[in-house]
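In response to a reviewer's request, we include the raw inputs and outputs for one of the modeled complexes. The two entities were modeled together in a single run.
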Amino acid sequence: MLQIGGKDFESRLLVGTGKYRTNDEMVRAIAASGADVVTVAVRRVNLDRRDEGGILHHLDSARYFLLANTAGCYSADEAIRYARLAREAGFNEFVKLEVIGDQETLLPDVAGLLEATTVLAKEGFKVMAYTNDDLVMALRLEAAGAVAVMPLASPIGSGLGLLNPYFIRTIKRRLHVPVIVDAGVGTASDACLVMEQGVDGILMNTAIAEAADAVGMAKAMRLGVEAGRAAFLAGRMPRREVAVPSTPASGMLS
Amino acid sequence: MELMINGDRRTVPAVETVAGLLAALDLDPRAVVVELNRTIIRRPTVADTPVVEGDQVEIVHFVGGG
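The model returned the following structure tokens for the whole complex.
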């Protein structure tokens, strides 16, 4: 069971809704992922092309917990504005807060993120803060009132996997709020490795949406997350620099 | 009347309220959120919030995202 900001979720896999080739594929992939939490973004209604419609026509809001993000915001003020608009849409008080600081890498602007987290937490938002794999900033976000801290495995949409397991482990060890790794996983082994660090969950989008078979990858990710979590709880054997035989050395024929 | 809607100057049928504007644009008020001159309009107040010539209106909804 994953608990964030007083709310319980069965699945430790959280998924996005961007980049799918079709809405039908998205719906089937999300179902296959087993996710409870699904992220959505706030954008202008296109008044000239009414056929595209909003995402909510396709998602069962009774089945999924819709988590609005502030993707694409480049300042604290902009992210705060988007968060307030999302809350007015009336699902819940949670927001996945992103303040992007660099267009090429999409790495977070952590100064802006901390500022926006402070403001929104005071307004009663339950802030899930997308940040880099920096312990000190993670601690400050927690102190500012974030209900979850979301360090990246690697840059958004890169599929490079977990670049710094040690930092992710350290963040998890030192924080009290849930740590959800957000961004960068590319395939199921990445998801498994992330969960083996002991974190509370993973949020991903591109790795599923851009897979040749998104539904198949969604299922693989579900299994990867479950396997990684189970392995973490089971406790891995120590690493040794020497071999130790698995089979008795005694009783050999002379 | 002329309004700035989502960054574009648009001519719309004369309306008196935000609710009227959404109806004129054929938008479901339950599916969008409106910001009028940078102030978010609470859903229950769309029918009571006046719109006047030249207002800046943002109309947003949810789309796919990570």
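As requested, we also summarize the result in words. Residues 51 and 116 of chain A are 34 Å apart (CA to CA). The mean pLDDT of chain A is 95.
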